[in-house]
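batch_manifest entry 22 of 60
target: Glycosyltransferase WbuB
source organism: Aliidongia dinghuensis
requested by: lab member K.T.
priority: normal
notes from requester: please return tokens only, no post-processing; we will run our own comparison against the previous entry in this batch. if the run fails, retry once and flag.
--- input ---
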Amino acid sequence: MIASLRGLGHEVLVVAPRQSRVEPSESKGTGWVPWLRQKLPRACAELLEFGYSLYAFARLYAAYRRFRPDALYERYNLYTPTGVWLAALTRLPVLLEVNSPMVAERSEHGGLALTALADWTERLSWRSADYVLPVTRALARHVQAKGVPDERIVVIPNGINLSHIPEPVEGARPKLPLGLEGKTVLGFIGFMREWHGLDRVVELLAHPAAPADVHLLLVGDGPARAAIEAQAQALGVADRLTITGFLPHGDVPAYLAAFDIALQPAATEYASPLKLFEYLQAGRAIVAPDQSNIREILTHDRNALLFDLAEPAAFGEAILRLCREPALRERLGNAARATIAELNRTWDNNARQVVALLDQRMEQGNAAAETSLGR
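--- output ---
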């Protein structure tokens, strides 16, 4: 988004927490912040999160005084209503990107001690922004439930940088450097967690119905990696599994080009998975869960095979069908590639939408000022 805004000729100043110098391969929950959270009572840790927003606001206000921007584009985070505080002080237009309903998410998974404070900061951030930009229509329903008017909610899904994956590469050539020539490659990109369900794919490799040439290529790393490797070893399919570990983003397309079947085994009900757009742009046959946020991008048997989450065997059956039917893989892959252009799901288009919203908001502000002066 930042690169696309700059590409359209706009100046962008990024204000964010200082980046860690720890290498990605070493940053598996280490560092003083996770350690402090583990040691402190949950309520104390959450108070520190909220207290950090005061420091963040001071930095943001200093940046505002130096840069004098026309607008603020902010990515929402819980306990950090800094953008709307700045807007209250300066009348700066605020566009708030929302990737998840963090109160609901943390209540369900990590737990919240200060639920009332968390809910207040979320409502304050969402209701006070000029526009709230959820990444899916499913997520927009969460925003609506917090009292944000429909006219201030604009869904902008994630997208793809077209230059990142300019043209799909077919045939055996992408597989040669990886030692996967002659294999039917099942692929997954991302940070591997237990809830992703990759263990089901490893089980499938050992199933009698799985073709002997099927290989699983996992591009990334994560806390589930050790369990996946142990499972493959126990099932006798370790030689049919490759895990790359962390890679620079620029290296990912070369591995994606080796996929025959791209996997999205699971997704939260409100997410706009970034990997889906890379799969689409690469022109790969996709297997993904049949749920409303996924159907905003994918259509069953048109540009993907969607499986019923209520049917335990459905995920594996969809994969095996694609393994057996190369013509179906090609048809779905071609339609997947066309989807990016059909839906215009690029970061450049997202940036143009953001600029149009800002123009609209600034025109409204000018009109209101003129009306006030006329009176």
